[in-house]
Structures are given as structure tokens and as C-alpha cells.
């Protein structure tokens, strides 16, 4: 059939386009994940950016767009962290596998839950199916300053064992609130 | 006369012949056009393939160079000073990545024009099970405009108690209910998926998944008896049953009562989809 002559080329074109898409994403991911800029560098860039593009908008995003986007995102994350009491101080991720509808990433997350610090490392597998995204945590490793509090170390070992990241956060949250409350009460009586 | 006849005949013949030749020529021209179009399209496709192959090879080389840089220096930084735009774009992606995983903590959300849209995530151990949303308005007073919480969760009750005075507590209590429900449902689903061949009939459950009923066979002295199990999860914030009632046919031997008690213990302290494995251990000691 006539169509089959074209089909071979069309199939290859489709395969190549997919491969190109995956390769660009991989490049961008690695670029993003292995770069780091400090807060000072970012502030400096904001000032520089406004000066560089004063009056220009060549089809790059205009300075107001990028700056506005950054400010809006910072407001969002700031609200969440303030509301929940869970502050992330640093986050890095590494994409280990990305294919079709399946992504595996390794995350390193540090922060405080109210006044209790934590450091986490875990692997996150996300799969996109028709209606939603499913997520599974494996290889969870937790470091907290459990020191004198055996409750906290019990929490850490049981949640680590089952990869119960959500439970860890929820329990750490109530524990931290109780801890805060206790601290305030003691201070009150001092 | 005959001359005129002959002349007329040969005129038709010539015309006919001419028409035939014209038709042939037209057909040939069409076929030629078709072939040229085909060749053009093929050439176009070939060129596109070459173009894409080159693009793909370029990207492969780029990624390889990146890997090399990473191995050697541990970072991938442009030798030149990164532009302010690059830095800002990096930061933007960075914050987006943080926002993307915030749901792992259990409570996340987004500011809206008139309030906040909260998202409560649920999970059973390391498996995240689904999120529930609440669109909350903050003016003139705090109230829920829309939500995706199932109707059998006592949302109104919880809201009445906490929403106005302590919204964090409201979300926390709601999260406890939702997580326990999701956990119970997950256990029931896993149980059905992996143990349907071990039970007689099907697992029966209510929408809240806090009442489960099923039957399974046990053997004693080479006879089989049917156990009927009723699991009641009295604490709505818990994903383990508060009651595990096992009943058997009245004609069953007394020894079975012991087995039923042992099994009941297992069901009260083990997640349903892991209970049957523990049961086998209990069962082996009976036989």
C-alpha cells in the first residue's frame, strides 16, 4: 500500500520527537537539580534583572513577569509554612527515573516543625493514571533531635520502618505543639 | 458518394484516435503528478527525520557532557556568569518543586481571592491515597464554600466545633477522620485484592468502611467449619477495629471457640490485609 512507505518515516518521526522530549526534560531536570544559588545571589539577580531589561521586552518574559511570578510563589510557600508550622529550610531532589507516566525522585528535605528540626531523605514514586496521581514513599530516613524524648525516637523508628511520611509529619506536628505548650507553661511558672 | 463516406469515416477515426491519445496523455500527466507529489512528500519526511536525528544527537551530546561535568566537579554551572534571568528562573522552579511536594505533609493549600483552598492528603503507611479539598472563605466570616469531603464523614459536626475558633484544629481533626477512613478503605481493598480466594463469598462493607463482614473456612480434626467475622471500627479516627466478633454454627465443637478467640485477637491488632498471614500461623498451631 502507498501508505506504508510513509508509515516507516512517520513512525520514526514520532519516536524521535518523544526521545527529544525526554532528553530535553532530562537535561533541564539535571540542570535544575545540580545547581544552587544562594539567597544573596537571588536578591542580586532581582536588582540586576530590573536594570538589564529596563524598557525591553524582546519576547523574553518582561522583568515584571518573572519578578511577579517569584513574589507570588514566595507568598504561597510562605503562607503554607506559616500556617502549618512546617518550615522547609532546604530541599533538593534528583530525578532517578522518568518514563511515560512514571517518575522516581530522591528527595532531601530539611526544616523545622514549629521549633523541632528534622532532616529527611526519601524516594518518591509517582504514577499518573487516568484520574489521578498515585504516590509511594520508600527508603525513608529521618533525623530529628530526639535526644531526651524517647517518644520522638519511637515515632521516628516506626514511621521510618513503614515509610509513613505523612504520619511522621502529622505526629511531629502535634508533638511539637505539645512541646511548645509545655515550654510556655514552664516559662510561665518560672 | 463513396468518397464522401470514406472521408467522413476517416474523420471520425482520426478524431477518436486523437481523443484517445489526449486521454492517455491526461492519465500519464496525472500519474506523473501523483508520483512527483509522492516523491516530494517522501523527500519532506526524509528531511524531517534527518533534522530530528540531528537534534536528538545534539541533545544526547549535551546530556553526556552534563554527566561528565557532574562526575568531575559535582555541579553543573555554566563557565560564564549565569544571567540574572537564569538565576530567577532557577529560583522559581525551586519554589515550585517545594510547593509540589508540600502535600506530603498532610495539609497544603493555595491562597484564593476570597480565602484559601485547603488540601488534606491521606495515606496508609507509605502509600498516598487521595486528597480532599475545602474551599474556605474568610470574609465576612470563616465558612466552607465548597468541598470534596464524602458525606459520611461528619464534616458539619467538626466544623461547628472548631472552624470559627481554631481552623488549624478543624483541619487536624478532619484529617484524622479522613486518614482513618482512607486507611480502612485501603485495608479492605487490599484484603479483597489479595485474599478473595481465602474467603467464602465476598467482603461486605458500608461506605464509611467501619463495618466489615465476611466468612472464611477453618478446619479442625479434618472437618471444615465456617467462621463469620464482623469487624466494627468504633473509633472513627482509628484504622484498627475496636470489636472483632467471630461466630460459628451452633453445632461446632467447643475447641473451635478457642480458635475463634485467637483469631478475634489477631483481627483486633493487625491490619486486615495482613491479618490472614498471621492467622495462618495461628491456624497451624491448632491443626
Automatic annotation (TrEMBL), chain A:
Residues 6-33 form a coiled coil. GO terms for biological process: CENP-A containing chromatin assembly. The keyword Coiled coil applies. GO terms for cellular component: chromosome, centromeric region; nucleus. Keywords: Coiled coil. It comes from the Eukaryota. Pfam families: CENP-P. This is CENPP protein. It comes from Anseranas semipalmata.
UniProtKB/TrEMBL annotation, chain B:
Residues 18-69 form a coiled coil. The lineage of its organism: Eukaryota, Metazoa, Chordata, Craniata, Vertebrata. It holds the Pfam family CENP-O. Its main location: nucleus. The keyword Hydrolase does not apply. Keywords: Centromere, Chromosome, Coiled coil, Nucleus. It is found in: Chromosome, Centromere; Nucleus. Belongs to the CENP-O/MCM21 family. GO terms for cellular component: Mis6-Sim4 complex; nucleus. It comes from the Eukaryota. InterPro entries: CENP-O. The gene is Cenpo. This is Centromere protein O. It comes from Anseranas semipalmata (Magpie goose). PANTHER family: CENTROMERE PROTEIN O (PTHR14582:SF1), INNER KINETOCHORE SUBUNIT MAL2 (PTHR14582).
